[in-house]
Amino acid sequence: MSVLVCGGAGYIGSHCVYKLIELGQKVVVVDNLQTGNSKAIHKDAIFYKGDIRDLDFLNKVFTEQEIDSVIHFAANSLVGISMSEPLSYFDNNVYGTEMLLRAMSQNDIKKIVFSSTAAVYGEPKSVPILETDETNPTNPYGETKLAMEKMMKWVDIAHGIKFVSLRYFNVAGAHESGYIGEAHSPETHLIPLVLEVPLGKREKVLIFGDDYETKDGTCIRDYIHVMDLIEAHLLALEYLEKGNKSDIFNLGNGMGFSVKEIIHASERVTGQKIKNEIAPRRLGDPAILVASSEKAKNILSWRPKYTDINDIISSAWKFHKTHENGFN
Ligand code: UDP
């Protein structure tokens, strides 16, 4: 039996595919290559290029392959763009997930691990954030992910499709081999953008706001290494295979770093001064997002290995030094 990885050519999906294959799993990848790159797909995975909004396409994949479970990464994921293009986020994320769940239901596939986000919480009332805290997204990206989670809850009740939703905080770093890593085009995430300065690809990094209610005025985020994140997906699959109930888990390190602290840590890792400049706030950004991942630790027995921000940035740096132009 195979695991279907939707979005397996993207940053996080490609790391999941590598890990599953390293563990001897058969993997089928579906990706429309909208933001993913075919060069990031492991050569031993079976790849179908297509869109999850296309029900006939999904039914063809489920008919041709013996699929037992789904890991779903295929979604638009940028806070800023979601503010200016909300409808494209609802279309790809919500409608895409509707079609995927429809295809799963029609083909009797009963397990899905889902990529959710800290953005479902919005501006938290207290930190660290617990899974039981109020969800009140401040941007359409978070709103679509929350809608997808709610869709899965009702589909479980109606059709018995069990899900684990993993609410990621800020994912960073790269596979140990350095073959794959974070390479978006255009890049919008903080750590790869900061590293573009020592690579000589960018003169300076912009700090989006230094007037937040935080220790140095810049936004605080909880950075989690991509391989630790993937480990949680494998544990979530095992959890579902054991017949456990659908559930939601935060995934983060439980430690917050400000934008300025990330720049300073990157200076230490690269040994170079990183020029930066204060710019206006970015729309839709909450001041502080830090996870409590105690539930994932207790129920899934998840144990993150990369707890030091320097190690996370070093691992990203290893990839970027050898892939200055991403996969091109
Ligand atoms: N950020 C920044 N400059 C950049 C990119 C990001 O100051 O060029 C800030 C952003 O406002 C946020 C944090 O860095 O507070 C992390 O942003 P990112 O886009 O990496 O992830 P997000 O938190 O949006 O998922």
TrEMBL record:
InterPro entries: Epimerase_deHydtase, NAD(P)-bd_dom_sf, UDP_G4E
CDD domains: UDP_G4E_1_SDR_e
Domain NAD-dependent epimerase/dehydratase stretches: 3-252
EC top class named in words: isomerase
Gene responsible for this protein: galE
NCBIfam families: galE (TIGR01179)
Domain of life: Bacteria
Any single GO BP term: galactose catabolic process via UDP-galactose, Leloir pathway
Name of the protein this chain belongs to: UDP-glucose 4-epimerase
